[in-house]
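FORM 12-B: Structure-to-Sequence Request
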């Protein structure tokens, strides 16, 4: 755990996620605020100075770069979406619907 999710990330006051997408692959990095590289702070990012990424998807014969295009990142913070809203009452009997539970117990989601 690098403190890049959950309670640990909240305790840090967040952090910086960086994704590099180029002809060789897609690499993902996470930096705590105090470890943010100077080149990023100066708006001159140089991934060669950042060390190993926490995720590295290398393009090649089995995974060609042309396969990835017109991509979007969608961050869905829904507590009771299509799936969870349906299974909640079955998996959490006796507490009502997912929507009602979230509305009536906001303190349980402080670290969400």
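FORM 12-B RESPONSE
SEQUENCE OUT:
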């Amino acid at each position: 755990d690098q403190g890049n999710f959950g309670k640990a990330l909240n305790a840090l006051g967040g952090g910086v996620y960086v994704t590099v997408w180029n002809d060789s692959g897609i690499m993902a990095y996470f930096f705590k605020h105090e470890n943010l590289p100077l080149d990023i702070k100066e708006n001159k990012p140089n991934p060669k100075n950042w060390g190993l990424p926490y995720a590295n998807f290398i393009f090649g014969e089995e995974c060609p770069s042309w396969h990835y295009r017109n991509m979007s990142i969608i961050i869905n913070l829904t507590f009771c979406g299509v799936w969870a809203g349906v299974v909640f009452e079955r998996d959490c009997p006796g507490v009502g619907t997912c929507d009602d539970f979230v509305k009536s117990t906001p303190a349980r989601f402080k670290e969400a």
